[in-house]
Amino acid sequence: FSHLQKKRRAATARRQHLKSAMLQLAATEIEKEAAAKEVEKQNYLAEHCPPLSLPGSMQELQELCKKLHAKIEAVDEERYDTEVKLQKTTKELEDLSQKLFDLRGKFKRPPLRRVRMSADAMLRALLGSKHKVCMDLRANLKQVKKEDTEKEKDLRDVGDWRKNIEEKSGMEGRKKMFEAGE
After folding, report:
1. Which is higher by pLDDT, 29 or 166?
2. Residues 115-124: pLDDT tens digits?
3. Residues 74 and 88 placed together within one structural domain of the fold
4. How far apart are CA 168 and CA 164, in angstroms?
5. Which of 143, 158, 159, 173 could cross-link with 168 by S-S, CB 3.0 to 4.6 Å?
C-alpha cells in the first residue's frame, strides 16, 4: 500500500516540477517578447521621428511648427481612414453573421419517418426518368423443389408425439423398449 503512495507522490512531484519548469519557460518567453517589442519600438521611432533640434530664430521655429502640424494632419487622416475601414468591415461581419443566424433559424430539419419503398420505387426516386432497370428480386431467385429427406419421413411416420409418449409409458412401454433393444 505504501508503495502505491510513494508512486503517487513521485508522479505528483514530477507533475509539479514540470508545471513549474513550463511556467519559468513561459515567463522567460514573455520577457523576450517584451524586450523585442521595445527594440522594435525604438527602431521605428528612430526611423520615423528624427531627433528634435530647436532652432534659435522665431522664423525657423514657426516653420518647424508648420511642418509638425502638416505631419500631424497626415497621420490623423490616415488614422481616420483606417478607422472607417475597420468600422465598415465590422459592419459587414455583423451583417453576414446576422444572415447566417437568420438562415439557421428559419431552416428546421423535418422529422424523418420510415417509409416502406420497393427497390424500383427507390431507384425511380433517385434516378428519375432515367430508371429502366427492373429490380424484381424474386424473379432472380432459384426454384428449389422440396425433396423428402429421411428425417422428414421419420417424423411423418412417428406422427403425434403424445401418442408416442403414451405408448412408451407404463410397464408395457418399458417392456416394448426392452424387447426392441434385444
Report:
1. 29
2. 787 777 777 7
3. yes
4. 6
5. 173
| Residue linked to cell 515567463 | 27
Domains identified in the chain, total number: 2
155 lies in some domain: no
Residue 98 domain flag? yes
User: What 3-state class would DSSP assign to 112?
Assistant: coil
Residues 63 and 99 reside in one and the same domain? yes
Q: Give the cell for residue 64.
A: 518647424
Whether 58 and 97 share a structural domain: yes
Contact 132, 120 (CB under 8 A): no
| pTM attached to this predicted model | 0.33
**CA–CA separation, 102 vs 106, rounded Å?**
6
pLDDT tens digits, 55-114: 778 888 888 889 989 999 999 999 999 999 999 999 999 999 988 888 877 666 778 788
The verdict on residue 19 lying in a domain is yes
Whole domain around residue 98: which residue ranges? 54-107
CA distance 174 to 168: 6
Residues 61 and 47 in one domain: no
pLDDT at position 31: 97
* Cell numbers that stand for 6 in this block: 510513494
Cα–Cα distances in angstroms (integers) from residue 97 to residues 3, 92, 102, 104, in the given order = 58, 9, 9, 10
Question: E strands along 24-164, which residues?
Answer: none
The answer as to whether 147 is a domain residue is: no
